[in-house]
Each structure stands twice: as C-alpha cells, then as structure tokens.
Write a structure and sequence with these properties.
The complex is a heterodimer.
Chain A (H helix, E strand, L loop, with lengths): L10 H16 L37 E4 L5 E4 L9 H14 L7 H14 L4 E7 L6 H14 L4 E4 L2 E3 L3 E3 L5 E3 H9 L12 E5 L4 E6 L2 E7 H27 L2 E5 L17 H7 L2 E7 L5 H11 L2 H4 L2 E9 L7 H11 L3 E6 L9 H5 L4 E2 L4 E6 L4 E2 L12 E6 L2 H5 L3 E4 L1 E2 L2 H10 L2 H7 L6 E4 L1 H5 L3 E4 L9 E4 L7 E3 L6 E9 L5 E8 L2 E3 L6 E3 L8 E2 L1 E3 L4 E4 L8 H10 L1 E2 L2 E2 L8 H19 L2 H8 L4
Parallel strand pairs in A: 3-11, 3-12, 4-11, 5-8, 12-13, 13-14, 16-18, 16-19, 19-21, 21-31, 22-24
Antiparallel strand pairs in A: 1-2, 6-7, 8-9, 9-10, 15-18, 17-20, 22-23, 24-27, 25-26, 25-28, 28-29, 30-31, 32-33
Helix pairs in contact in A: 2-3, 4-5, 4-17, 6-7, 8-10
Chain B lengths: L1 E7 L6 H14 L4 E4 L2 E3 L3 E3 L5 E3 H10 L10 E7 L2 E6 L2 E6 L7 H18 L2 E5 L17 H7 L3 E6 L5 H11 L8 E9 L7 H11 L2 E7 L22 H20 L3 H7 L3
Parallel strand pairs in B: 1-9, 1-10, 2-9, 3-6, 10-11, 11-12
Antiparallel strand pairs in B: 4-5, 6-7, 7-8
Helix pairs in contact in B: 1-2, 1-7, 5-6
Classes of the chains: A alpha/beta, B alpha/beta.
Chain lengths: 618, 278
C-alpha cells in the first residue's frame, strides 16, 4: 500500500487516503448538488475530489501551512480550487486508469500532479474597472463582468483593494469585508467570499477618522494624513500585493474595482485603490462613465489625459453607462471619443433597474424612501447608520420603506425598524435630542418594532460604556427599556461571526452575521436557537411577542423568508394585515437580478472586444 | 456692455447657483445686472408679469439682481412632451413642436436668441449668462446654443463650474477644456470647484496642475451648502405664479447668506469682475 509522500504522515493522512480510495472507486461524479455544503467553492464545481488525491502537494500556489492545535505545521488547501476543475478531474481519472493508480500512490505527486499543473494551472489575469466618478457604476459593472465570465465557465473573483463602506459582511472565516464584494463574489458563482477580495476596508467613524480593517480584521484607526503617509506606503500596498497574488494563483480572472476617480491628481501617488493597484496586478483596465449627469465625454477625456503615460496605456476600453432612451444617440459621440483618445468604446449600457442591495451612495445622497406598497415601515435614519442593506428584503414586499429622522415619521408608521449603527451610544443620544426617542417609546405595543444590532442594543434598559469605547462620553446611557437587557462595552474588540439558526417558535431558518463591539446580557425570551456547527446550545435575540418587540444582533435577519414573513405578518396598515404571498429567499432574488444585469451588459457590450481585452481563449 | 458665462462640467454642477451668487454680488455693488440663459430644457417654468414663459432658474436669478424677469432672459425653453417630441417656447411664447422628423431650426432660433441677448446687453451694465448641461457633449455640440453657441456668437468670456461631490473634478475640468474647440479655449478664464467638504488644502497640488495645463485660474472653492432652487421643490405646481412673492424674498435672503459665506471662503470675485468682457 502506498501512502501519500509526507514528512508528517499520521492519522489525518490515513483518513484522507481512505476517502480518496472511495472517491477513485466512484469516478467522476461532477457537481454533487445534493451535498449540504454544495457549492462550498464555486457554482458548477466538480465534487469528485472532496478529498484531494494530491494531498499534501505543498505547492505554494495551491495552499499554505497553518499551525495545528498541537502547534505543528499542517498543510491547508481549503482555498484550493484546482482539484475542483472539471479538466483536472477528467485528466486525473484518465491517469488513474492508464497508470492503475490506487489512493496513496506516490506517482500522484511525482507524476500526475506536476503534469496536471503544467497543463491546467496558469496565473489568472486581472481586469480592472475604473470609474470616472463615484457612482459611475463600477461595482455593478464588476458584478456583471463576474457573472459574464462565470457563465463562460471561468473561475472568477472580484477584488477591491480598498473600500470605504458602511455596509460590511462577515465571511465564513469570520473576516469582515465590504458587502459589495460579497455580492460580486456571488455574481462570480462563489458562495464564500473572503477577505482576499477586499483586503482593506475603511469604516468611517466620523470626525475624519476611519477604522482600517486589513484582511478582515481590525488593524487600527487612522486619520487622513496618517493613512496616506504611514499606512498606504507600508502595510497598505503590501496587503494589495499579497492578496492579489493569492487570487491570481487560484482564479482565471480577477475583476478589480477602482474607487472614486483614478485621476485625483492631488493624491495620485498615494492612491492604492486605482492605478497603483492596477500596476501591482498588471491589470488591463476599462473606464466606466455615467452619462446621467452629462459631461461624460469630458470626464472620460480628462481622466485618461491626466494620467501619466504608463498608467494611461493600461486603459483598453471605455464603457458608457446608464443611458436612458435610445443608446444609439450616444453613438456619434462615442465615435468621436474613440478618435480623440485612441481607446475603443466597448459598450453603451442602457439604464437598468435591477433589484440588488443598496449601495452606500444611496444613503450618502439621501434617498429617503423605497417602494409604494401599503405597509409603511419607518427605518430610523441614524446619523451613523450601518449595514442598512439589512432593510433591502423588506422592500420586496408590499411596503413603503422610509428612512425617517423626525418624530412625525415614527408616529405615522405601521412598523419601526431601528437599524445598526457605527456608534450606538452617540446615535442614541441623538435620538433623545430630536424627539424620536420618545416617539419610538410611545409606539410600544402599537406597532411591531425590530431592532438590529445597534438598534437591538438601544432597545435594552441600560447601555454601559464606562471607558467611552463606543460613545464620546464614558458612562451609562438609558435605553428604550423595551427589553430588560443590558449592553456593555468592556474592551476594544469586535465580535464577527456568522450565524445559522432557527426561530424558536417555529417558522424556519435564519442566516446572517454579527459585527459588534458591545455585548448584551440577555434576560428576555430569546428569538432564535443556533443551528451552526458546534453552537447548538446557544440562543440569540430577544422577543416580547405580546408587545410585538423583536431584537437581534443578526445582520441579514430578513434575507431568508422565515423571519421576514413573521415580521410582515404582524404589521397592520389602517387596522388590516396585508397578504404578501410566499416570501422569497433574498439570495434567490439577488441571483436572478445578477443574471438580468449580466444579460443587459452582454447586450450593450461589444463582447468580442471584451474577450480580446480579457484574452479569452488565449 | 459687459458679460460673463458660467459653464458647468455636468448638469447639476452648480451653474445656476454660482450664476445667482454672482448676479447678487454685482447687484450689491450697485450695478444693473440681468441674467441670461440662451436655452433651457425644463418642465419647470415661470410666467413673467407680461405673460412670458421662461425657466424658473432665470426668474430667481432676476430676483437676485433685484429686477423682474422678462422673456429675453431665457429666450428658448424646451419642454419635452414625451414620445421624443418637444415644445419650443421662444421668448416666452409657444413657437413650434420639434422631434419625430421635425428638425430644430437651430440657426433661425439662434438669431432670435442673440437679439434677446443684445437687448439685455444694451439695457444693463452686466449680463450674467448661464450655460446648459456640459458644453462638450460630443454628440450634441454642433447644435449647441447656450454654451459654445453664445461664446462663438458674442465672444463671451466664461468660467467653468466643477462639482467635486462625486469625485473626478480635475478630470472633469481638464476634460471639458480639452474638448472645447481650440479657438474658444482662450475665452475660458477660470474655474470654480463646487460642493467641497473638508480641508481644502488637500486639493492644492491638483489645482496647480490644472492651472498649469490649461492657463485657467482657480477662482475658489465653494463649500458644500444646499441652496434650494425652486425647481427642485416642484413649486412650479403653482402654475408658475408664486403668489405673494414671499418665496422669492426668502430665496434672496438665503442667497445673501450664502454669498457672505462664499465671500468668506475666499471666492475671488475681484478676479471674476476682471474677466467681464470690456
């Protein structure tokens, strides 16, 4: 019997050998869609080698060593996608038959793996989407391209080196990254976005300081001069390089997103979100301009011409985005633009209304309401509101969702949602100052009230912050008193965890994630029971059914139909509940809309030009 | 006669506001000032005392000048009527419907526009003109009236207004300048950066570079303030009549406050005054 060649051997290798043995017997099983974990890597993955016959290959482009609980180095290939490619599985089974290989045969590593790698592994190519402005449609374009390349059968990952966002999510590994990269990863057929896709996340704390999150973990707080002077040239650019390399080793395409305009010549050399990232990744770029406000040709010309030649030459195409009416009316201008810049216009994309999670810009630009349905839901527009994408699934129902910042807006609502905030205590003080605190209290028992994360903390009796970790003034702050819970901030640390749970009173599953600094002593009846692996004895949230009060730390609590259905069913408009039909899983809605988005882009893009730029088929 | 033209790098860059501020600045200096916008694409209109329909923006700018609006101040008002058709209101009265195979008689209309402009220029010390959208829409430039149309017809000096809120303001200003016909570039004397939040010193290197590249002068940075123009509030629902006039008094009061703030923030009005064509 041949064991895999390993300096370490032992029980683990033995277990893997047994698994591989049974895999070799079964042969190519393709996608195992029936598996609970499918798709653990990517949509359409080949599941034949759940355990890899090449383990431990110890090839640094496939995996890395981690330290085991006993302190020994262990080869980890949990991020490896290579053995899930159809061509690799196909080739390997061919060799198994040809060479008569059994599990553990050293020739897997000495002959088959090197040959497979030579044939099927290549460093991925980076393509970058730049925008002439914020809101040019970069993130949507990246999402569309991810879906387009995914549909072509490529492995594709999104990447944004540095994202300033109030909407973040927790990955399966407990890392915090921007919500939009999670969405783009999903567009690329990936269910598990990870921190490599957004290695630097800036969370504005107000007063020009941002919390800097590197590879999913808090790194420090920086003001603007220190960020550009100290962080960017050192750990910043290194994080970009390290994570870009990681993704290129594993994916065929990395679709990068720039930030703001790449031609901010006052900070050009310190900008690691645009052309410096493109340089590190050796990316070809496309520039997206939004025609909505006019001046798009000037923006395109100015952006390209303000760049130094070495960066300018990376721009291989221009996309004219968000055209209302007949796209052909842009044609003559596009031709002139091509002539002036010597860069082809590779797409004229019509205005599309797709149902995808809100972008930060909506909050920044003050969009105040969504939908025109019968149930009026007031979302408290906290000054430091965070993760307001939590609210999006409510908009799919027969609702008018309104962001309100006055007591009147609260008093006329059929239901109230208090969302998350970057700073619970300061926002609670703000609520008290403008009369909304009393308004919300007066609605107790009259309409359903849901608090999420910071909003949940506010629903408690007292919030203790003795050291001023959360608020600007240390001490205790009285909450809304809807629950007898007390929250406290004891140390500067953050809980980031993904939760899978079920509603205690039945109704189904809920999935989401927690991101919070403070903790809560819960004395109320809990709302959810955990079903996550190893956490079955935990409960989450608080509920007072008779008073229609609900509180939870779980972001995304409304994404799955179960709790949304429950919450909507409690809401009455003019004394009547509204039948909303069977609610849909928000993930399915998003997936469907990503397809619509990709369809729209495929129609508006010169696909041959895109494929040429991307080197498809090379 | 003296005049100046405010061009925007995009719609909503802040032309209308900057224009109104400058009108007010000159009026406060005791000059007789009139606003002018050759053509306006808008459904929000105002009806003047002599029954002429013009764009709401010019009505407010007239009040900023301390005068009553007239049809000459916005000689062309284009009112989209759906299905690709548009009503052309010429000097306050319906003129024709264009679109769907009926071309816009640009040259004929432009002649009337110039007559209106000349009349204002004759009657007032200064005419403060506003452009329309971006002056360099490559697909529309040939038929332009309000931007390069007026620059070419009357040699009016101009100032670019760029909006920094969405980023890319240097690209917008430089790109607009680059796309202007070369013979008109010398007329563009300066630029203003609008809607800035934060510490303006961070912009310095970028401003210097654009000044070097174009020869234009940066006339200042306008802090982020929201002066609500009535078209944004859909006050035109009142049928264009603003009743007792209290709304425009309120507007002028706000404008005065904004002007004080802008003067304090260091907008170089003296340089602007110097650009007024002799």
């Amino acid at each position: 019997m041949h064991l895999p060649v390993s300096k370490r051997g032992g029980r683990t290798t033995d277990l893997i050998r047994k698994q591989v043995e049974s895999e070799l017997e079964k042969g190519d099983i393709g996608c195992n869609v029936g598996c609970d974990y499918y798709p653990c890597h990517f949509e359409g993955q080949n599941c034949s080698f759940c355990y890899c016959p090449f383990y431990p290959c110890e090839d640094p482009v496939m995996g890395y060593f981690v330290t085991s609980r006993s302190g020994k180095p262990v080869w980890s290939c949990e991020d490896c996608l290579f053995c899930h490619r159809n061509e690799v599985v196909d080739f390997t089974f061919g060799k198994v038959r040809e060479m008569g290989l059994k599990a553990g045969d050293p020739r897997f590593l000495t002959e088959v793996f090197p040959e497979a790698k030579r044939r099927f592994w290549h460093r991925g190519k980076a393509l970058m989407v730049l925008g002439a402005t914020s809101d040019a449609g970069k993130s949507i374009t990246v999402a569309a391209l991810c879906r387009i390349f995914h549909r072509m059968g490529y492995l594709v990952a999104p990447f944004k080196s540095q994202n300033m966002s109030l909407n973040s999510r927790v990955t399966a590994k407990g890392s915090e990254i921007a919500m939009v990269q999670v969405l783009q990863a999903r567009a690329g057929g990936l269910r598990n976005a990870d921190a490599h896709m957004n290695p630097i996340l800036l969370k504005p704390k107000g007063n020009t300081v941002s919390q800097v999150i590197v590879e999913g973990k808090p790194f420090g707080d920086y003001n603007v001069p220190d960020y550009y002077g100290k962080f960017v040239p050192g750990p910043g650019i290194e994080a970009v390089r390290r994570n870009m390399d990681f993704l290129k080793d594993r994916y065929d395409y990395v679709i990068m997103e720039g930030a703001g305009s790449p031609a901010e010549i006052n900070i050009y050399d310190a900008d690691i979100a645009n052309m410096r990232a493109a340089e590190v990744a050796d990316a070809d770029c496309v520039l997206v301009v939004n025609v909505e406000w006019g001046g798009s040709f000037a923006y395109a010309v100015g952006t390209v011409r303000l760049m130094p030649e070495k960066d300018r030459s990376r721009i291989k195409g221009i996309i004219i985005n968000n055209v209302r009416g007949d796209p052909d009316r842009m044609r003559s201008g596009a031709e002139k633009l091509e002539e002036i810049l010597g860069i082809p216009v590779i797409g004229i994309i019509p205005h599309m209304s797709v149902d995808l999670p809100s972008e930060d810009s909506e909050a920044f630009r003050g969009q105040m309401s969504k939908g025109t349905g019968s149930l009026h839901i007031a979302v408290v527009k906290l000054p430091r509101i965070a993760n307001f994408t939590d609210i999006d699934p409510l908009c799919m129902e027969d609702t008018t969702v309104e962001f309100v910042d006055t007591a009147e807006g609260i008093l006329s609502a059929d239901a109230i949602v208090i969302p998350g905030t970057k700073n619970t205590i300061d926002d609670l003080v703000w609520l008290k100052g403008n009369g909304m605190f009393d308004a919300i209290r007066s609605m107790r028992g009259k309409v359903p009230i849901l608090g999420i994360c910071g909003g949940y903390q506010m629903m408690g009796r007292v919030l203790h912050d003795p050291d001023g970790i959360e608020g600007t003034v240390p001490g205790d702050t009285a909450g809304l008193g809807f629950f007898d819970n007390e929250s406290y901030w004891k140390e500067y640390s953050k809980r980031t965890v993904r939760d899978r749970c079920e509603m205690i009173d039945g109704g189904g599953e809920v999935e989401g994630y927690e991101i919070h600094m403070g903790m809560t002593d819960v004395v109320e009846k809990p709302l959810f029971r955990m079903t996550s692996f190893g956490r079955k004895d935990e409960v989450e949230g608080s509920v007072r059914e008779d008073e229609m009060l609900y509180g939870t730390y779980i972001h995304g609590v409304l994404d799955k139909p179960a709790f949304r259905k429950k919450f909507i069913s409690m809401i009455k408009h003019e004394g009547k509940t509204v039948s909303t039909g069977e609610p849909e899983d928000y993930d399915d809605v998003v997936d469907r809309n990503l397809d619509l988005l990709a369809d729209g882009f495929e129609k508006g893009l010169d696909m041959a030009a895109l494929k040429r730029i991307a080197g498809v088929g090379e | 006669m003296r005049s100046i033209l405010f061009l925007g790098t995009s719609s909503g860059a802040g032309k209308t506001t900057v224009d109104a501020l400058y009108c007010r600045h000159l009026a406060r200096k005791g000059l007789r000032v009139a606003p002018f916008k050759a053509s306006n694409l808008s459904l929000n209109s105002y009806v003047t005392e002599d029954g002429k329909e013009i764009g709401m923006g010019q009505a407010f700018q007239a009040w900023a000048c301390g005068i009553e609006p007239t049809g000459d101040m916005n000689p062309v008002l284009l009112k989209p009527s759906g299905n690709g058709r548009m009503q052309v209101v010429l000097r306050g009265a319906p003129f024709m419907d264009v679109g769907r195979g009926v071309p816009f008689p640009r040259d004929e209309v432009m002649e009337k526009v110039c007559e209106s402009y000349d009349r204002l220029a004759h009657d007032y010390d200064v005419v403060v003109c506003e452009g329309s959208g971006s002056p360099v829409e490559l697909n529309l430039m040939d038929n332009d009236m309000a931007n390069i149309g007026m620059m070419r017809a009357r040699g009016i000096r101009s100032v670019l207004v760029g909006d920094i809120e969405r980023g890319g303001v240097f690209a917008a200003i430089y790109g607009t300048w680059l796309l202007l016909p070369e013979d008109l570039r010398p007329l563009v004397k300066g630029f203003v950066i609008n809607r800035f939040r934060g510490d303006a010193s961070i912009l310095e290197p970028g401003i210097r570079k654009v000044e070097e590249l174009t020869g234009m002068k940066c006339l200042g940075i306008i802090p982020y303030v929201h002066l609500r123009f009535p078209e944004e509030d859909s006050l035109s629902d009142s049928g264009g009549r603003l009743g007792d006039g209290s709304i425009h008094e309120e507007f002028v009061k706000n404008l005065d406050e904004l002007l004080d703030a802008v003067e304090e923030a260091g907008i170089d009005f003296d340089a602007l005054d110097g650009f007024l064509s002799a």
